[in-house]
């Protein structure tokens, strides 16, 4: 056998052996070769396996990394909060004086004791209260509320009514919440705004035409089109009509006239001296409208020294207690604020409703929820105290499912002798957030 043929066959056998080794999976180690009875049990498998489920077989020995899973575990969607056992509905009545109807419903199969509190607007007082309610003041604050201590039977609805005295014509917002008996943990909250029947809500005046960019652009474009069309029509009417010259032999000839040469007429185009002013007017109008719009947006940015200045997404909304305020993803409603004064600080519990208005799940963080003092300083949410008042549940740990709503207390520890003047709530770092004034 020639030497070259032997070398080729040796190379082919070597390559074939490499292919076999690549196709065969790695052989198990010495521990895997032992019979099942002699194999030592895993030290951590039995301890970590949950009750009622088989323990997982260890994939690596001590000091060796475990093998990755065959398929990546899918991300679980956020679960909407469960429906509370007690729900609240508030509706204003069409009366001359501010009057509200509060319906408290127990959807459970057993009686529930609850405390219902209705927040009164600043400057308003209760003149009529049904079913044993009594007016009271918040601890450490000037806020006034009406309180009921109720025992709700199973599958029942209780209706409460209040009538207030306030300056005539002014709309009044009075939210109401149902709490666990004697506590700060809310079951549910609702809000409503009463308006006098004789004074309908004033519609927002429409800005004049010269302050609307779309109307300005439309008007300038129409004027330019009319100017070009009128000039073109006038030029066509001024153009002389060409009459063919008479035949040299006169009329009555039976022979056809020879084809007379026709002068080539040059097609008229719009004058450059007309197009340039029209284009300049259109460009000036477009640039002016764009500059005016940019100036309006720049003037709308808050130039305060607060951290929310210059927010990137959305527009900041401001309101009072009981008003739903929408920001980028969430709709926040502050139903109640109660402050207790300690030795050198105030501990304030804010009952807040959070409604995810987007179809996707959204995360939020305790460090983005702030209480501001009169001097401009602020404090973040006291997360340990917030967890305690929510029965040990971390309300910021999981995202809020799309379209879901929850009502929860947020606790702020404010240093100094004065309570906070407003709250600032937001869903994300770059969200403009909402601001709620504290009376």
Task: Quickly list its features.
21% helix; single chain; 6 helices; 439 residues; Immunoglobulin-like; 27% strand; 20 strands; alpha+beta
Characterize the structure shown.
With 439 residues, this protein is α+β, with helices and mostly antiparallel strands. Among the domains are: 86-194, Immunoglobulin-like; 317-437, Immunoglobulin-like. The chain has helices at residues 3-23, 30-33, 45-48, 213-238, 272-300, 383-389; strands at 86-92, 99-106, 112-119, 125-129, 134-137, 144-152, 156-165, 172-173, 176-180, 186-190, 193-194, 317-319, 325-326, 330-341, 345-356, 370-372, 378-380, 405-415, 422-425, 434-437. The chain has a five-stranded antiparallel β-sheet, with no helix packed on it. A five-stranded mixed β-sheet has the order 12-20-19-16-17, with no helix packed on it. Strands 1-2-7-4 form a four-stranded antiparallel β-sheet, with no helix packed on it. Helix 4 (213-238) runs antiparallel to helix 5 (272-300). The longest helix is centred in the middle third of the chain and has 29 residues, at 272-300. The N and C termini lie far apart (106 Å).
């Amino acid at each position: 056998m020639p030497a070259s043929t032997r070398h080729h066959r040796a190379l082919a056998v070597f390559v074939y052996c490499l292919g076999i080794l690549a196709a065969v999976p790695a052989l198990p180690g010495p521990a895997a070769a032992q019979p099942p009875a002699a194999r030592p049990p895993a030290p951590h498998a039995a301890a970590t396996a949950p009750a009622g489920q088989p323990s997982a077989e260890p994939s690596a020995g001590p000091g060796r990394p475990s093998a990755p899973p065959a398929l990546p575990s899918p991300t679980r969607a956020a679960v909407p909060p469960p429906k509370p056992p007690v729900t609240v509905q508030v509706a204003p009545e069409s009366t001359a004086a501010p009057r509200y109807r509060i319906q408290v419903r127990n959807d459970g199969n057993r009686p529930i004791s609850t405390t219902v509190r209705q927040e009164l607007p600043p400057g308003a007082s209760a003149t009529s209260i049904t079913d044993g309610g009594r007016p009271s003041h918040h601890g450490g604050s000037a806020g006034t509320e009406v309180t009921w201590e109720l025992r709700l039977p199973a599958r029942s609805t209780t209706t409460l009514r209040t009538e207030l005295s306030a300056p005539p014509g002014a709309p009044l917002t009075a939210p109401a919440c149902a709490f666990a008996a004697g506590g700060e943990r809310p079951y549910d909250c609702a809000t409503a705004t009463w308006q006098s029947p004789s004074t309908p809500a004033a519609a927002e005046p429409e800005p004049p035409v010269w302050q609307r960019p779309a109307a300005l652009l439309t008007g300038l474009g129409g004027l330019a089109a009319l100017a070009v069309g009128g000039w073109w029509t006038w030029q066509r009417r001024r153009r002389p009509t060409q009459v063919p010259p008479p035949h040299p032999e006169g009329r009555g000839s039976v022979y056809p006239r020879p084809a007379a040469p026709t002068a080539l007429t040059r097609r008229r185009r719009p004058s450059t001296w007309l197009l340039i002013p029209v284009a300049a007017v259109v460009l000036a109008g477009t640039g002016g409208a764009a500059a005016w719009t940019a100036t309006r947006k720049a003037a709308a940015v808050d130039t305060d020294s607060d951290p929310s200045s210059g927010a990137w997404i959305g527009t900041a909304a401001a309101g009072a207690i009981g008003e739903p305020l929408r920001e980028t993803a969430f709709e926040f409603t502050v139903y109640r604020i109660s402050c207790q004064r300690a030795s050198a600080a105030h501990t304030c519990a804010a009952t807040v409703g959070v409604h995810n208005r987007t179809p996707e799940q959204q995360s939020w963080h305790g460090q983005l929820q702030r209480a501001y003092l009169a001097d401009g300083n602020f404090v973040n949410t006291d997360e340990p105290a917030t967890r305690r008042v929510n029965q040990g549940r971390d309300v910021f740990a999981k995202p809020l499912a799309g379209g879901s709503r929850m009502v929860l207390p947020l606790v702020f520890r404010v240093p100094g002798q004065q309570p906070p003047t407003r709250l600032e709530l937001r869903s994300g770092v770059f969200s403009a957030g909402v601001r709620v004034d504290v009376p």
